[in-house]
Amino acid sequence: MDGTPAGVPHRAFGARLMTPLLLGSLLNPINSTMIATALVAIGQDFRVGPADTAWLLSAMYLASAVGQPSMGRLADRVGPRRVFVAGALMVCAAGLIGALAPVFTLLIVSRVVLGIGTAAAYPAAMAMLRAESRRTGRPTPRAVLGRLSLAALASAAVGPTLGGLLAATAGWRAVFAVNVPLALLALVFALVWLPRDEKSTRDANAARDERSGRDSARAGALDPLGIALFAATLTTTMFFLNDLADPRWFLLAPAAVLAAVLVWWQLRHPAPFLDLRMLAANGGLVRTYLRHGLTYLVIYCALYGFSQWLEQVHGYSSFHAGLIMLPMSGVAAFCSIAGARTKGIRAPLTLAALCLAAGSAVLLVVHGTSPLLALLCAGALLGIPQGLASTANQAAVYAQAPADGVGAAAGLQRTAQYLGAITASGLIGVLYGQRASDPGLHHMAAIGLGLGALLLALTLTDRTLRAGSPAAATN
Fold it and tell me: Which first-to-last residue range defines the signal peptide (predicted)?
């Protein structure tokens, strides 16, 4: 121990370490929602409809869903600082590609690169915090973990408003270009302030040396075939989901074959990309992933579907649509802070499910001439579950995950969130077709209402949530 008084966060977890980690961690969530209020303008410039612009959403979420756990493994193997820096450079490249793209296809390429690059920050941050915890002999302070969660949620919440402001004042290309200065800032802070990987790697190797040879091999393995199979399965499924109006049924067969091969390989591999045996034995954790994915399916339907409806049906500009979404952002940020201070897990998740259903019910009755107050109320109601579910499900993951696998479990929670987003983009495409409409929004709201009821049942019947507040994560 270093003599720092108990209860006082060690200076290793102070501003120099946390500034680049927090800045890097907000790049993925803010890019996941910032484009919401720019989709209409992009579609007009390239003469494509919602079914096509939905690819801008799915491409990034697919890349992120595979990238988050992959980058986590890579950070453990080659060092979190290297992975963080490489991710920042990729974000810069993606911003330039999107800002200068002459054709729609390059925008999709930009979003793929953006998904992979931004996926590096969060797992690298978690690996960096674990390394600092080992170095100081102290567990990572709960407040530090809370700041990472709040940065991600708050940036996602303000994304639609920021995107609308950029699109209205500088054009939709600014939504891509803004990543360049943000990533460069994170890169400079990382190079100056983050500890070099050589020390972190020695600490990690020393810890692994205490384990058996098999455990050491499992800690360092990356399972590239498992990652490739997972990516191929998700890609094939995404192609099917993104055109549900005219389903490509022939894709179901290769998707099923790929999924079967993925399961077979993961059960054979000594250090699988997806630990299926652990998941099969941990029903509570699986239910948490299910709750998180379904919650964000509805939330992303609101973020993207509602914002497009505001512009194309109600006639608002992208800037004004972003302003109308602002209460959703503000309420989500407030509820994330309140949720982080709540000791229990079941109560905030129950309230989140109820508000998800209530917000969907309001969207079920609004129409193209509805008053502004009704639109603001719908957004505010849907902001509550966005804030509460994020922090409560994160707490559930820390409580339910194996003691030596919290990082991997947190990565899979993000993957569940991205799967919900991919499904939401496909749902928007089939319900809206080439243009948003009242019936399309109402069908989306009815699905949200049903999922809210299902989430309420999943929460109230889950006995693993009775444990209450999880213990502070240790490393």
Answer: none
Q: What is the DSSP string of 53-86?
A: HHHHHHHHHHHHHHHHHHHHHHHHHH-HHHHHHH
Q: Taking Cα atoms as reference points, which of 189, 29, 19 lies closest to residue 119?
A: 29
- CB-based contact 322:163 (threshold 8 Å): yes
- Residues 174-210 have pLDDT tens digits of 999 999 999 999 999 999 888 887 544 444 444 444 4
In terms of Cα–Cα distance, which of 348, 293, 303, 340 is closest to 324? 303
Q: What is the pLDDT of residues 134-175, one digit of tens each?
A: 777 776 665 676 677 778 777 876 787 788 889 889 999 999
Q: What tokens does 448 get? A: 């949200």
Q: Does domain 274-470 have CATH number 3.10.20.90?
A: no
User: Can you give the residue ranges of every domain in the chain?
Assistant: 13-223, 274-470
Pull the structure tokens for residue 233: 């399965």
Return the CATH number of the domain spanning residue range 13-223.
1.20.1250.20
The backbone torsions φ and ψ at residue 324, rounded to the nearest 5 degrees and listed phi first, read -65, -30
What burial class does residue 214 get, using C-beta atoms within 10 Å of its C-beta: 0-12 exposed, 13-18 middle, 19+ buried?
exposed
CA distance 241 to 54: 10
- Vertex 400: Cα angle to 397 and 403 (nearest 5): 100
Is there a common fold for 13-223 and 274-470? Answer: yes
pTM for this predicted structure: 0.74
The residues, any chain, with a CB within 8 Å of residue 352's CB and separated by 6 or more, are 295, 384, 385, 388, 389, 392, 455
Q: Helix 15-25 crosses helix 121-136 at what angle (to 10 degrees)?
A: 160
Residues 6+ apart with CB under 8 A from 125: 21, 24, 25, 80, 84, 148
